[in-house]
Amino acid sequence: MSSQNIYILGIESSCDDTAASVIHNGRILSNVVASQKIHEEYGGVVPELASRAHQQNIIPVVHQAIKKAGISKNQLSAVAFTKGPGLMGSLLVGTSFAKSLSYGLNIPLIDVNHMQGHILAHFIDEDGFDKPPFPFLAMTISGGHTQIVRVDDYFDMKVIGETIDDAVGEAYDKSGKILGLGYPAGPEIDKRAQLGNPKAFKFTKPKVDGLNFSFSGLKTAILYFVQRETKANPNFVEEHLNDICASIQYTIIGILIDKLKLATKQTGIKHIAIGGGVSANSGIRKALKDGEQKFGWTTYIPKFEFTTDNAAMIAIVGYLKFLEGDFANQDVSASARLKI
Amino acid sequence: MKISYGINEVEQVAKNLLKNTKTKTILFYGHMGVGKTTLIKALVKVLGSNDDVSSPTFSIINEYKLQEGKIFHFDLYRINDIEEAYNFGIEDYLDSEHWKLIEWPEKIEAILHQDADKIEIILDDNNNRIISLK
């Protein structure tokens, strides 16, 4: 296989960002996310969200991904796109574009599950990053998702735990909102947490059976806590911001690590691969390293640009499906609630 | 109509509410953490969907299947203005025949039907929810 030159274009448009990437065999040649810069180059406005924005972005983004990869579109072996889950209007743009392009170039079309993309991003060839061996546990943590998946093979995976309400990134952002921080608040809470005392304030962890998560109650607990304390001292948040952030971070990480411990115990699997934007959080990274020492885990975190919503992860899934000859028909349609 | 409830009575409250709503568009007003998503979770179940309900703050719209039709669960928390709502095609969703349960409707008030059912949730001093349907 390695003597063959396989070029896959990956297109991702499940939520806010329009992204395109070209992969050559297992290695990423380009990974473009729609940004202000693309708009500057092509003119036009910059709406924040989805479909109309995707419609404006998709052609320049795909163009740039192919150009950056240093190939011509006629060299593409297949087009892969995000079928779901996501926001319907956004998914439709990527889906229709990918279908037309594959039809026009007369090359295979490959549908990709966004959540599988987050997991299989670990199989992108990247110097200095190891690939997890099967079976492993994948934990995807982001603004929109929180789940633990048992992965027995590239396309043999099962969700064994997920959030029943808010995602972990949302817990960060909404806690930040309560504290008067900007959106998204995750990075700011992480930064301040490193300067504060994680045991200054205690927030009760939610009691959720099994491997499922819940973060909605924590948000409410933080809200009550801040309201109560500010009644007694209007400057409470300002005066204790670092300690509050450290305590929130400590609680959230505790919840994630507790579930990972339970998952490793239930499955006997100690290889843990983390994906999603929240994997950039320094506290989580440290807790995972501690887990390697304490519990004998081996943990894997991909390069940051492959953890947030991106098209490289769609391209790698496209590549893996291409090798298996697993193609979609022209009648494939987007699916907002697609399951793994 | 006005009901006071604890969080563990939410399913009964959802049943009562659905007996009293006039339309398939329900707007949810209330501060963050007051229990809007939790109430919607109960409503979706009472309406007969088996789908898991999670917060659509990031995804903006979740869809749940019913035996006949769908429920659209909106969370407009993180959009900044109506222009962004137009950008993701909100009119197509609002014009549909399906159920529409909308959190943070303040952001799109200008394009909502006047006759939509409005629910306000507030917390009293004992952490009970007080809900009013208008």
TrEMBL record, chain A:
PROSITE patterns: GLYCOPROTEASE. InterPro entries: ATPase_NBD, Gcp-like_dom, KAE1/TsaD, Peptidase_M22_CS, TsaD. Coiled coil: none annotated. It is found in: Cytoplasm. Keywords: Acyltransferase, Cytoplasm, Iron, Metal-binding, Transferase, tRNA processing. GO terms for molecular function: iron ion binding; tRNA N(6)-L-threonylcarbamoyladenine synthase activity. This is tRNA N6-adenosine threonylcarbamoyltransferase. Fe cation binds at residues 114, 118, 309. CDD domains: ASKHA_NBD_TsaD_bac. Substrate binds at residues 140-144, 173, 186, 190, 281. Its cofactor is Fe(2+). Pfam families: TsaD. One of its GO terms (cellular component) is cytoplasm. PANTHER family: TRNA N6-ADENOSINE THREONYLCARBAMOYLTRANSFERASE (PTHR11735), TRNA N6-ADENOSINE THREONYLCARBAMOYLTRANSFERASE, MITOCHONDRIAL (PTHR11735:SF6). Gene3D superfamilies: 3.30.420.40. Belongs to the KAE1 / TsaD family. It catalyses: L-threonylcarbamoyladenylate + adenosine(37) in tRNA = N(6)-L-threonylcarbamoyladenosine(37) in tRNA + AMP + H(+). Its main location: cytoplasm. Required for the formation of a threonylcarbamoyl group on adenosine at position 37 (t(6)A37) in tRNAs that read codons beginning with adenine. Is involved in the transfer of the threonylcarbamoyl moiety of threonylcarbamoyl-AMP (TC-AMP) to the N6 group of A37, together with TsaE and TsaB. TsaD likely plays a direct catalytic role in this reaction. Binds 1 Fe(2+) ion per subunit. Residues 28-315 form the Gcp-like domain. GO terms for biological process: tRNA threonylcarbamoyladenosine modification. NCBIfam families: gcp_kae1, T6A_TsaD_YgjD. Signal peptide: none annotated. Its EC number is 2.3.1.234.
From TrEMBL, chain B:
GO terms for biological process: tRNA threonylcarbamoyladenosine modification. The keyword Nucleotide-binding applies. It comes from the Bacteria. InterPro entries: P-loop_NTPase, T6A_TsaE. One of its GO terms (cellular component) is cytoplasm. Keywords: ATP-binding, Cytoplasm, Magnesium, Metal-binding, Nucleotide-binding, tRNA processing. Gene3D superfamilies: P-loop containing nucleotide triphosphate hydrolases. It is found in: Cytoplasm. GO terms for molecular function: ATP binding; metal ion binding. Belongs to the TsaE family. This is tRNA threonylcarbamoyladenosine biosynthesis protein TsaE. The lineage of its organism: Bacteria, Pseudomonadati, Bacteroidota, Flavobacteriia, Flavobacteriales.
